[in-house]
Specification:
The chain is an alpha+beta fold. The strands form 2 sheets. A 6-stranded mixed beta sheet has the order 1-2-6-3-5-4, sandwiched between helices. A 5-stranded mixed beta sheet has the order 7-11-8-10-9, sandwiched between helices. The chain contains 15 helices and 11 strands. Strand 1 and strand 2 form a beta hairpin. The longest helix is centred in the N-terminal third of the chain and has 20 residues.
Length: about 425
């Protein structure tokens, strides 16, 4: 049985409870949202990871780990992402459902208290975050950025987005640059924490088989003493169409070249045409039945992979492909040719049916995991109407071919990024 509730904890602090008795676990998450600002993203990003190391109640990593072990092996994790032009700092705790504990322990209440402890009562030494913890998280964050750089598929996608949105907040990396992270001092973190708890928009989510009412009450108590100020206004700039086409070629010693093409779609949350745009992107390059896969990859053998992905918050569609250097221009031409076919309505009813099934199946599988449900509802934070996966599937099924063609005709090429490497085996 599923129940969804929405409540307000305090000004700018919202609570969403999604109760589902089919799960044997529960997940509590707190998402801090702030506008992406180039001079603040690095400190904010590092802070998210630092907060999960200790608190005043659990003053070192070992004691915190011991407490999680006592709670039937519960886990505590942090993540940093972007939702359009908004930086999202997420701290989540996952644990066993209360009904499955051996002695009636209230895991949900314990995890709610633990989350509030690390977020709102952090461990400080002489008025600052502990130096050793800061240095460890700084090193690990730099290693994370190195790993993204070394994965050239991720790197090429990020470079295309940076170039495409160079004059928009979205063009700033979710954790900033390596140089910004390396330049941080631990004295930068306390002001960042105060900015977070005082001005961020906060979304609290409780999901799974848990007492959402009790969790709501505990968070109300925890934030009652916070010195909340004016909540920062979170908006996203959406560019309707490309003004000019930007081209950049970069050379590296890689075995497989990458081609990433960024398009403006003119459709983003909360536009009512978003379902049509999603179907357009799916038919174009979202599945193994798509035009890009069947033609650019299979029929013409111009690339190792070729797919499209829609960013619903920014109204951006990216086409990513791995190619041999000699085929980059031909692949680009064919990708644009397939897009023109979408604009001309050159796709069949079977293509539409397959795309609708693919999207609806993906919506159905969201309910199979708490992480999937969390991502779904978090992505709708700025939507005019929050819809369940089932409601969105019904909207997808109601889209007509004419609406898909209309969405395709709005698409314009903005940026072409090529990462040129030496010829060799596909990796």
């Amino acid at each position: 049985m599923i129940g969804i509730e929405n409540r307000m904890i305090a000004s700018g602090i919202n609570f969403k409870g999604i109760r589902d008795s089919k799960f044997k676990t529960l997940r509590l998450s707190v998402h801090f949202m702030l506008p992406v600002q180039k001079d603040q993203v690095a400190a904010n990003g590092l802070l998210a990871f630092l907060l999960t190391r200790a608190s005043r109640e659990y003053p070192d990593f070992t004691k915190l780990a011991q407490r999680l072990a006592e709670l039937y092996g519960a886990s505590l994790n942090a993540d940093v992402s972007k939702l359009g032009d908004v930086q999202v700092l997420s701290i989540s705790a996952t644990g066993l459902s209360d009904r499955l504990t051996l002695n009636g322990e209230k895991i949900s209440e314990a995890l709610a208290n633990l989350l509030c402890s690390v977020l709102f009562n952090p461990l400080l030494e002489n008025g600052q975050f502990p130096r050793e913890s800061f240095l460890q998280e700084q090193r690990q964050t730099l290693e994370m950025l190195d790993a993204e750089y070394n994965d050239k598929r991720i790197y090429a996608k990020q470079r295309c987005e940076e170039l495409m949105c160079a004059e928009e907040p979205y063009g700033v990396g979710r954790c900033g640059t390596k140089e910004q992270i390396a330049a941080l001092s631990r004295e930068d973190l306390l002001p960042a924490w105060k900015r977070l708890v005082e001005t961020a928009r906060i979304e609290v989510m409780a999901m799974g088989d848990c007492n959402t009412t009790r969790i709501y009450e505990l968070f109300c108590q925890a934030v009652a003493g916070l010195a909340r100020g004016e909540v920062r206004h979170c908006t996203t700039e959406n560019v309707a169409a490309a003004r000019t086409v930007k081209n950049e070629v970069e050379s590296m010693d890689v075995a497989q070249s990458k081609l990433v093409m960024g398009f403006r779609t003119g459709i983003a949350i909360p536009d009512s045409r978003l379902s049509a745009a999603k179907l357009m992107c799916t038919i174009f390059g979202g599945t193994p039945h798509s035009k890009l896969f069947l033609n650019v990859r299979e029929k013409l053998s111009l690339c190792y992979y070729c797919s499209s992905q829609l960013n619903s918050m920014k109204g951006i569609m990216l086409v990513q492909s791995g190619v041999e250097t000699k085929n980059i221009e031909r692949a680009k031409e064919e990708i644009l040719a397939q897009l023109q076919q979408m604009k001309d309505g050159d796709f069949s009813e079977d293509d539409i049916i397959a795309a609708k099934k693919s999207l609806c199946n993906s919506y159905k599988t969201l309910a199979d995991s708490l992480g999937g449900l969390e991502s779904w509802y978090l992505s709708q934070t700025f939507a005019s109407t929050v819809r369940s996966p089932e409601e969105s599937a019904a909207e997808i099924n109601a889209v007509t071919k004419e609406e898909i063609v209309e969405a395709a005709r709005l698409v314009s090429l903005d940026t072409v990024y090529s990462l040129i490497g030496k010829e060799g085996s596909a990796q």
